[in-house]
Amino acid sequence: MAGARKAAGSRPDLPGFNADESPLGRLATRGGRDGEAYLGVAETLAGERLRADFTRAGMAPTLTQRWDAAPRGGGTGRGGFDLSDSALDARRRVDAALAAVGPELSGVLLDVCCFLKGLEQVERERQWPVRSAKLMLKTGLAALGRHYGFGAEAVGGAARLRRWGTPDYRPTIGGG
Question: Which residue intervals define the domain DUF6456 in the entry (predicted)?
């Protein structure tokens, strides 16, 4: 997080997180009255994961002409472009994440995490009271973090370890 200001007592850097680009960056690095950041690691990681899937899915609007979608002579006549399997999987993950948080919170998550709108802009566009977008965002990110399996114990970008087996399962050395 080069160039990002860290709050007193802040946590370790988040991997692949550019605080200068994301509206979550300010909330994740700036300390509040108590010196702690407004967003926890799990909430920040959940928002960045949604944004990564949204970008991989090709759902972000483009500002230029898409030449790969233009019809070509002798083509199949389908008109559009084919999405890769990874883009389709990313779309499914975005749809599942937004369904998990519900329609009340998915809009503010899309606006802030994916379209990179500031909280003031979201409040103006939705005609919400001042500071309400901040509360709705935190609530949505908490629900999103639960959906992704990020617990409150997530530190430094690592969520809790998942494995198959019962709690008393112990692997044996040598396969015996």
Answer: 17-149
